[in-house]
Design goal:
CATH topology of chain A: Rossmann fold
Number of helices of chain A: 8
CATH architecture of chain A: 3-Layer(aba) Sandwich
Structural class of chain A: alpha/beta
Helix content of chain A: 40-55%
Strand order of the largest sheet of chain A: 3-2-4-1-5-6-7
Radius of gyration of chain A: 18 Å
Order of helices and strands of chain A: HEHEHEHEEHHEHEH
CATH superfamily of chain A: P-loop containing nucleotide triphosphate hydrolases
Number of strands of chain A: 7
CATH class of chain A: Alpha Beta
Largest interface: A-B, 46 and 46 residues
Oligomer: homodimer
Number of domains of chain A: 1
Chain lengths: ~230, ~230
């Protein structure tokens, strides 16, 4: 796209400056999370893949074990933060307006407004979008891409940056598979084609199927991060 | 977001310049479509809402009636263009790379590469994304937002720009409703709250339910555009 008064080279430079500034702030967030022994996950997906339902189920099951807080991103509304607060966990809603992703600055500001959750879990639910959030580090330990069985197998190939950036793919709505033409093996093959290291779990936030394996993954990855920090 | 060497005012100006330039090129596209009596629709949705399946069904049913061509947008792959070409209709795939939407320049270039479809239908399938494509006019007669019953009722409130920009909401995968907790009336109410004029049709690309009403909508809107042009 041509912009009056700006060369293509300058536009590329501006994009680099924005990402560079974001990465600096993400490192500040990461240091803050480490200082408070907080394990942070950045949940990304298409709109409607079921991130909020997954979080509601996860918080209900884990809230007695360690402190949990949530930062919610959406263009508009505070619906998701309200659904989270109904579980008893604190939640801050960030509205991005015209923006298609959370950035590290928004997350740093929101984290500062949350009550302390030292030694706990921070879930960051990004704007539902398989493109923009891929490029923005928020300071999280891992990106987790939530993928619904209703979305079609080829999404990892069509939106490769997001699947390349994620450590875990949660295939949600597994309870709907009997009513769909969904090829699980092909979905996993496509995800591994863009990211050979991606881990995969199948879950249903609705029925609870597979959720224990997700909690075990969180415990293992949080322990591993804490061990790295102690070295 | 702070960008070294650029004031916030300058960043807002750059965004305006990009949209302004896009709008100019969209008007050029619109004039080209009018000159060839082509009725163009810009299909927008979340990833996996079923835009391509809807187009495959639509082309199969309408291809004997008037010429049809498709411009496909995706970050990566030419899967969708291949699915369209299997119906016999010409299709051009545009890969947006890091980009989260088609722009008028991409559509103008792709239209020039398609065979002539004078008096026909042009379907532009945008990148699966409920945020970015809302702001970019491609020269289409109407934006049509495809919404899947699996996505949850509150998406029109969370992504209001897209529903405000669309003339028609196609609620797809209506065949799955018996297996879901989906409240159709509430979805329509939320969509009308952000856009009182939006028309709504329920369809299933898989079973064909409701598709005739969509074809009737196309015929009516295309006739109305042609009548306006003749005035």
């Amino acid at each position: 796209m041509h912009v009056p008064g700006l060369s293509q080279q300058r536009i590329v430079q501006i994009e680099r400056d924005i990402l560079g500034k974001n990465d600096e702030l993400a490192q500040v967030n990461r240091a803050r999370f480490a200082a408070a022994r907080v394990f942070a996950l950045n949940l990304v997906s298409s709109p409607g893949a079921g991130k909020t339902a997954l979080l509601v189920k996860t918080i209900s099951d884990l809230k007695g074990i360690r402190p949990i807080a949530v930062i919610e991103g959406d263009q508009q509304t505070s619906n998701d933060a309200e659904r989270i607060r109904a579980t008893g966990a604190p939640a801050i809603q960030v509205n991005t307006g015209k923006g298609c992703h959370l950035d590290a600055s928004m997350v740093g500001d929101a984290f500062a407004r949350l009550p302390a959750i030292d030694g706990g879990l921070l879930f960051i639910e990004n704007v539902g979008n398989l493109v923009c959030p891929a490029a923005f580090d928020l300071g999280e330990a891992h990106k987790v891409v939530v993928f619904s069985t209703t979305e079609g197998e080829d999404k990892p190939l069509k939106y490769p940056d997001m699947f390349a950036a994620s450590s875990l793919m949660l295939i949600n709505k597994i309870d709907l598979v009997p009513n769909l033409d969904f090829d699980l093996a092909r979905t996993v093959e496509y995800a591994r084609r863009v990211n050979p290291k991606i881990e995969v779990l199948t879950v249903s936030a609705k029925t609870g199927e597979g959720m224990k394996a997700f909690y075990a993954w969180i415990a293992k990855r949080a322990a591993s991060l804490a061990a790295d920090a102690a070295e």
